[in-house]
Amino acid sequence: MALGTPNRESARRVVGETPLRIEDVLALARGEIPAVLDDAPAYRRRLAEGPKTVEKLLQSGQPIYGVTTGFGAAIGKKIPEEHWGDLPHNLLRYHGCGTGRILDETAAAATTAIRLVSLARGHSGVRIELLERLCELLNCRMLPRIPEEGSVGASGDLTPLSYLAAALVGEREVTLRGREMSAREAHTELGLAPLSLSPKESLALMNGTSVMTALGCLAFERALRVARVASALTAMISDSVHGNAGHFDERIFQLKPHPGQSLCAAWIRSDLELEGRSLPPPARLQDRYSLRCAPHVIGVLVDALEFSRRILEVELNSVDDNPLVDAERGEILHGGNFYGGHVAFVMDGLKLAVASVADLLDRQILLLCSPDTSDGLPADLVASGDGSGVAHHGFKAMQISASALTAEALKLTMPATAFSRSTESHNQDKVSMGTIASRDCLRILELTETVAAIGVLAACQAVDLRDGGSGLRRSLEIRDAVRKSIPMLREDRRQDRDIESVRDLIRSGALPAGSIGVV
User: Fold this and answer.
1) Which of 341, 355, 318, 321 is nearest to 164 (CA)?
2) Do 257 and 501 meet the contact criterion of CB atoms below 8 Å apart?
């Protein structure tokens, strides 16, 4: 499995009836390609039928949830016609109660892109003008400032998505090309007039799973990168402690052919350059599990990602609000597509698989730091050989930090989906907690990337202590990339900035840990 390239049409992404991939969402979120609404006449005609159908049904006297009724448990309220225009703006205003940290611009842009894709399917009853405005805001980088807390993930991401709806009508705060300002100021700077929402449009904007799915897409990319870095680290550390490279023999994995496990073993074999060279005698016939079973641990993550891709791509291309509009039959469909159970499930599973990799790397760091398990490397990887080594402690505290980070990652693996609770006057009496699961996953990824950074620093130290080890190309490339900014640890010094620097290399994909594609 590989992280592919986005679908490109003249360096732009046409949004309409063609499904997007995770890579397309990420490219739009980073501003690498612009979004344009499909201009095919037949498609535009079909889009226009949605709001016309809503209007016809309203004029016929048919009740429509959230248009002629109150919201949620207030569905029994009958809204007089003269207030239909007030309701969409009141909905977004009373949901302005998000708390916590503000999502970064990439997450806000991914959320905007996914909401656009869902509404552009043409079953939400929104105007073409609204869809084009979402494209414009995305391309101009006018992005809502969305607090990350406040969604139970069942009537969609109502509260966080209210910040996107508010941005469209010129309320609350946004960033415009990285500068924070009021939404009204941003509209003025762009020469745009804020939208006035038609009946059902704020409900269509808010009543979906776009935040949890956006965070899931971002987590997917980072988790795949973690899997490849962990495999490269396993090869470096196996070589440094004179491990038994036979543990990664292809024949072993043909007999238990989980695809992700087999792929990780192939990555490790490639990094150990096993093909065409005789293997040195190992220090132990059978290595400890953190080396011998590394493909089996990391492979779970890779296979979980394959499953996650299927779920996330169905979700991001779905119509996930309520009610839905069947313009062809002239009907309104009241349902529950806003329920985020599938995203919640894969994010809870993914965060467990990621945390397990953090635990693996933490154990591998210990192998390097103990002479009993490293086949003679100095204790704590202390480099000083002039007799002053007794006064230095090398990577001793780095082990403690890695263990603390790992423990925190493991603690967060408690499934968010297990904490469904009845809320909103018992109308939302079964909820997914999908957005919390996605946030947990990103936090676990942050912790795991930091453990991996400590592992990279320790592995580079070991390569230098072994005078280049076996001269493996991957090990030397990683060591050289790190040494461009971080010298070998020859005496005790602070290493927090070293950790941060290597973590940035990992997160950006700049660490030469190898191709993610099939080896």
Assistant:
1) 321
2) no
Range list of H helices, 317-395: 341-369, 371-374
Token couple for 289: 């599990």
Structural contact between residues 182 and 144, judged by C-beta atoms closer than 8 angstroms? no
> Are 474 and 238 within 8 A, CB to CB?
no
CA 444 to each of CA 37, 252, 296, 352, 481: distance values in angstroms, whole numbers, following the listed order: 36, 31, 20, 9, 25
- Burial class of 470 by CB neighbour count within 10 A (0 to 12, 13 to 18, 19+): middle
Q: Are 444 and 354 in contact (CB under 8 A)?
A: yes
Give yes or no for a contact between 6 and 27, defined as CB atoms under 8 angstroms apart.
Answer: yes
Question: Following CA atoms 223, 226, 230, 233 in sequence, which dihedral angle do they give, to the nearest 10 degrees?
Answer: 170
In a structure prediction context, what are the per-residue pLDDT tens digits for the chain, which is 519 residues long?
555 555 555 588 999 999 999 999 999 999 999 999 999 999 999 999 999 999 999 999 999 998 999 888 888 888 888 889 899 999 999 999 999 999 999 999 999 999 999 999 999 999 999 999 999 999 999 999 999 999 999 989 999 999 999 999 999 999 999 999 999 999 999 999 999 999 899 999 999 999 999 999 999 999 999 999 999 999 999 999 999 999 999 999 999 999 999 999 999 999 999 887 777 789 999 999 999 999 999 999 999 999 999 999 999 999 999 999 999 999 999 999 999 999 999 999 999 999 999 999 999 999 999 999 999 999 999 997 666 668 899 999 999 999 999 999 999 999 999 999 999 889 989 999 999 999 999 999 999 999 999 999 999 999 999 998 889 999 999 999 999 999 999 999 999 999 999 999 999 999 999 988 643
Which is catalytic among the residues 65, 163, 289, 339? 65
- Is residue 339 part of the annotated active site? The answer reads no
Q: What span, in angstroms and rounded, lies between the C-alpha atoms of 47 and 52?
A: 9
Q: List the beta bridge partners of residue 270.
A: none
